[in-house]
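JOB MANIFEST
job_type = single_chain_structure
chain_count = 1
residues = 181
[input]
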Amino acid sequence: MRVERLLVNKEDVFDACRVVLEKLHDEVKLGNEVLINVSGSLRQMAIACYIAALVSGTPIYSVIPEYGDDFQEIGVKEIHSIPHFPITEISANSLRILEILNEKGAVRSIDQLMVLLDSESEKEEYHRFRGRINYYLKELDAVKFIDRERRGKSVRLRLTDSGRIFIFGHRIRALKAEKKG
């Protein structure tokens, strides 16, 4: 593993982001796996690195140090991966699924989720409705907002930490829009 430091303009977030992206591009072009470590970074640099990680799909993490009795750093306590959030909005139907999972904590099956989404659904439409639900679940899987846990023939669904954070942020945006309107 090679660690490299970059010289950037610490007062210009976007210029710093451009420098990080240029380095990422060069390393990926060489076939190297790249991780971004923001441990101990200045705020501007951490923001620049997070933006670069989002737009490039590069893993980003921070190290939590371990301290001795004399308060001196003696090692690494934990490595914390920082989740990527989608840059574009998710569909209204996927958002509704997130809201249900947030409210319920988890659902024990896709059938239970279908009932919670539309208790009026006709039997003839069952397969078409289930297909649509699976489409939205794939969308949520792709952005790592849900976990699926197979239990026999059923699949238990629950929010990930990223999903909970996203739904909380969405509620704040909705509240802001309501206050403006």
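[summary]
The chain has two domains: 13-82, 92-180.
The helical segments are 13-29, 43-56, 92-104, 110-117, 126-142, 161-180.
exit_status = 0
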